Amino acid sequence: MPCVTPAENVRVLVTGANGYLAMWIIKALLDQGYAVRGTVRSKERAKDLQDYFNSYSGRAEWVIVEDITKEGAYDEVVKNVNAIEHLASPSKGSTDDPDGHGEEFIKPAVDGTLSILRSALKFGNKLQRIILTSSISAIIRPVADSEPFVIFDENDWSDEFVEAIKRKGSQSSFVDKYYASKNLAERGQSILSVNLGAWNFYHQHKANIAWDLVVLNPGLGPIQDFKDLESLPKSLSIWYQNIFENQSDDLLKAMWEYVDIQDVKDAHIEALKEEAAGERIILCAGNLIFSARPELYSGNLSRGNPDLPRRIAYQYGTEKGKNILGVQYKSPEDTILSMAAYFETRGWLRK
Question: Where would I find the NAD-dependent epimerase/dehydratase domain in this sequence (predicted)?
Fold first, then answer.
């Protein structure tokens, strides 16, 4: 499949266009010469984006898709686009009901993915590539203290969390549901009425389509915008609580994966290249233990507990991201301090 090269008549659809990552991607696409069609859930969001990108001479347009899980939601939107950057996630079924049944949490995530794939299958008349934003959560599994060091790669799946959903049902934890939802939306299994995910849908119809699929699996980092601290997306909430607030030792010695928003943005642009066709690619700069905060902040932010024991139990293989997409990851210092600056612009930084 040839790469999708920049030109004014080459249009990229970006779903969830008002998201934090999506806006960075849209700006990069426009700066490189692409035309952009973005989807949002309301007229107000469309107006905000129209004002923000007003200087790009009409090369950006905004379409309202109120419910991305609805069958046919993207039927008209996918027509005459050359590529899709799918970043939208359902507004329901996530942290709104963390103690609800697994199906209520997982099914919207799966339906939101399949909705755009089905529309692309039927109406993607010019489509060459779909880039789906998944998560490192679709890859990782728990690592026991007794295990030797583990290196996860793109062949791994977070199946232990899916199995936990099967066992626990409505008693499943938020972590079980969140990680399982990422797994199932990307791959699919016969569980909770979920029989299809992105990959098996793609392979099932591969002989009848002219487009290919790329899935990017980023680590934790800011991936969307928000109105207030209470509406933080889960990934950003984890960062905020551990960096800017006092936490228990158990949380401070936990290990998290990080990646800078600019690196994720660059990867989404580079994923339009020919070499990325059909690939699943991890985007992860490294692991961070929050008890090490003083080493990173040099006193700039609230301090952790550097005396806690630290164990790096695993890491992610990042060769594909570097070799195929040319990603050069920023340091944790740069990532965390840039996030702090972002919070400060909102007036939410607590020192």
Answer: 12-145
Q: Is the pTM value of this prediction over 0.85?
A: yes
- Where along the chain do its domains lie? 11-221+259-284+315-330
Render pLDDT for 40-73 as a digit per residue (tens, 0 to 9): 999 999 999 999 999 998 899 999 999 999 999 9
Residue 234: pLDDT band (50, 70, 90) is: low
Secondary structure of residue 344 in the 3-state scheme:
helix
Distances (CA, A) of 240 to 97, 138, 331: 21, 22, 18
| 14, 22 contact by CB (below 8 A) | yes
Res 231 pLDDT > 80? no
Assigned architecture for domain 11-221+259-284+315-330: 3-Layer(aba) Sandwich (3.40)
CA angle 66, 29, 319 (to 5 degrees): 100
Q: DSSP code of 227?
A: S
Query: How many Å from the N-terminal Cα to the C-terminal Cα in the chain?
Result: 50
Edge to edge, the sheet with strand 212-218 lists 60-64, 35-40, 11-15, 83-86, 129-133, 212-218, 280-283
CA distance 198 to 28: 26
**Which ranges constitute the DSSP H helices of 9-69?**
20-32, 43-52
CB 334 within 8 A of CB 290: no
